[in-house]
Amino acid sequence: MRIFAVLILFNSLFCTAVEVSPMVLSLDPTKPQQVTYSTIHNVFNREVAFDIEIFEVDFSGPEPMFRYLENSPVWVFPPTLLLHRGESQRIQLRWVSEAPSLDKTYQISLVEQPLSNSANASEPQLTMLLNVNLIVHVHQESFLPDLVVEKSLCSNYSCEITVANNGKGAARLSEYDLTIYLPHQKTASFKKQQLKASGYDVFFAPESKQQMLIPLKDSVNAEVISPDVALSQ
Hints:
Keywords: Signal. By secondary structure, this protein is mainly β. About 5% of the residues lie in helices and about 50% in strands.
């Protein structure tokens, strides 16, 4: 088994050289004929070549882990890319296995491969090879999340909240209204999409725990242990 946990690091470095749209896709495993697409555009001043590798994302630990798959249930075509300067290529993705017992997430990694430059073969060359990643969420409509707040602690201008998803379906914080009940009948409330609009969202994979850090408009005077927290759709 090969564990790979650093691919995401390269996305911010690579986005000015290769454009990917969209970078997050969804597949319904109960619809095997469903195909989804993403377009890769080369804005390098040179040719780029990629091999495609697929990883299953495991959210069961404190940090996501990436398990390389030799035989992936997500089919990607073409499996290799060669893009000239300014050229685009559309890749297609499809689910090709039995439906899983809960929602899954996969990372599709485009791993750049070295290309020989015959015109300057005698000259020393140094080229930084980088990767770019797409995320595929495999979701069934019949699978629902079951979010449970396990811990909460507020101090100064923020609250740390640990949420467990005990359901089979994935969810995102931006799909919920969030209310934190503070002392002296005070509340901190956030509507759906409100935190996402400020650049913050949390993905709750099935059978996993995530810690949220929620900002407060006003500071709490003293540490508040286990304030009530409500997540509602």
